[in-house]
């Protein structure tokens, strides 16, 4: 059984395919033949800086995958051979609030990830995937989709008529666009590419802003909302964006803070003055994953995939992500 491993501090060049024993499920475990794995920014940053995250050499990267159950251990009741499943980002987060114990169960960091031909999961770390989705589409759900769902639906309580601000056209932002429109919200989206903005408009974005042409894009957001500001921001930007997101948010609004952002020069006065709720987002629980999948299945939402690579091309997939030219998700397919 083959798997990719991080073997040194050499970044993407440190990745190597290695041979592993074919895994066997123990009590309460399920063995899954991986059919597709998607890449998140967190996966790339783990490969580029494994020592910062205390990742040991030999760690299998990637948190997100979908595949077919090939065997089950004793005590497993939810899944059987042939079932189509996706892994949960946090294997121990079944429901309720997050905890430090749950944090230590993250795949592709504290635990081995899913960039392998077969992976063993605990039964509580898997969900069934909607039948209409391909393996590649289903592999995009565990991190990016669930983070966007939690940010807007569970935490944000987005509803019809709300204004939502999204930054960029990566996986989280495009899922947030689809979920916002699903709930009848109005979406304002930023990007530095007119081509990407056109694609976002085709997906349903109501207003688009090229932040290179309009560096004071927060002023444009306020103009589009008659000076009131947006109800929700899905903040996935970087250095310099959070302050503008705060300025773009209405009094009493909500900002979902996602990813590793530079806040060294942040003036948080605006948060207090406008009574804005700023909440860190790090994926979500299994129960929330099931809720999201029910909504996906009902509305038949199609995840946006920019490009698909083969298993042997995994380093090229990370290099492509590093270029930051993608629109939506990047997937590694095992088929």
Brief descriptors of the model:
29% helix; 335 residues; Rossmann fold; single chain; seven-stranded mixed sheet; six-stranded parallel sheet; alpha/beta; 2 domains; Quinone Oxidoreductase, Chain A, domain 1; globular
Mind explaining what this structure looks like?
It contains 11 helices and 15 strands. It is of the alpha/beta class and 335 residues long. The protein has 2 domains: 2-140 and 303-333, Quinone Oxidoreductase, Chain A, domain 1 (Alpha-Beta Complex); 145-281, Rossmann fold. Strands 3, 4, 5, 6, 7, 14 and 15 form a 7-stranded mixed sheet that branches. Helix 7 (217-224) packs parallel to helix 8. It is globular and about 60 Å long. The chain starts with a strand and ends with a strand.
Q: What structural class do you assign from the helix and strand content?
A: alpha/beta
Average residue-wise pLDDT = 95
Number of helices: 11
At the first level of CATH, the class of the largest domain is: Alpha Beta
Task: Note the main sheet.
Answer: 7 strands, mixed
CATH-defined fold name of the largest domain: Quinone Oxidoreductase, Chain A, domain 1
Indicate the CATH architecture of the largest domain. Alpha-Beta Complex
If you compute it from the alpha carbons, what radius of gyration comes out, rounded to the nearest whole angstrom?
20 Å
Helix content class: 25-40%
Instruction: Please identify which CATH superfamily of the largest domain we are dealing with.
Output: Medium-chain alcohol dehydrogenases, catalytic domain
How far apart lie the N and C ends? 15 Å
Give the domain tally. 2
| Proportion of residues in extended strands | 25-35%
Task: Please count the beta strands (DSSP E, at least 2 residues each).
Answer: 15
Residue runs with pLDDT of under 50 for 5 or more positions:
none
Shape: globular
The topology string of helices and strands comes to: EEEHEEHEEHHEHEHEHEHEHEHEHE
């Amino acid at each position: 059984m083959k798997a990719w491993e991080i073997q040194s501090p050499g970044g993407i060049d440190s990745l190597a395919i290695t041979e592993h024993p074919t895994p066997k499920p123990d009590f309460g475990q399920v063995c899954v033949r991986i059919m597709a794995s998607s890449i998140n920014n967190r996966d790339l940053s783990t490969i580029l800086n494994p020592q910062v995250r205390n990742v040991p050499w030999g760690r299998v990267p990637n948190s997100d995958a979908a595949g077919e159950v090939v065997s089950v251990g004793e005590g497993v009741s939810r899944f059987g051979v042939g079932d189509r499943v996706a892994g949960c980002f946090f294997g121990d987060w079944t429901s309720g609030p997050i905890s430090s114990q749950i944090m230590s169960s993250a795949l592709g960091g504290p635990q081995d990830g899913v960039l392998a031909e077969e992976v063993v999961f605990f039964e509580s770390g898997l969900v069934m995937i909607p039948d209409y989705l391909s393996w590649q589409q289903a592999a995009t759900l565990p991190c990016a989709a669930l983070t966007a769902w939690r940010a807007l639906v569970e935490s944000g309580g987005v509803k019809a008529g709300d204004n939502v601000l999204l930054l960029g056209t990566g996986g989280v932002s495009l899922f947030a666009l689809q979920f916002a429109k699903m709930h009848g919200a109005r979406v304002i989206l930023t990007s530095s590419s007119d081509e990407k903005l056109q694609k976002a408009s085709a997906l349903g974005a109501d207003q688009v802003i090229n932040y290179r042409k309009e560096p004071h894009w927060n002023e444009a957001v306020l103009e589009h909302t008659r000076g009131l500001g947006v109800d929700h921001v899905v903040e996935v930007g970087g250095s310099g964006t959070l302050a503008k997101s705060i300025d773009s948010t209405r009094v009493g609004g909500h900002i979902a803070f996602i990813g590793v952002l530079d806040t060294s020069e942040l003036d948080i006065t605006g948060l207090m003055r406008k009574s804005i709720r700023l909440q860190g987002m790090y994926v979500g629980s299994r129960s929330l994953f099931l809720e999201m999948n029910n909504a996906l299945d009902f509305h038949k939402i199609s995840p946006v995939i920019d490009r698909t690579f083969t298993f042997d091309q995994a380093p090229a997939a990370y290099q492509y992500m590093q270029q930051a030219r993608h629109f939506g998700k990047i997937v590694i397919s095992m088929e």
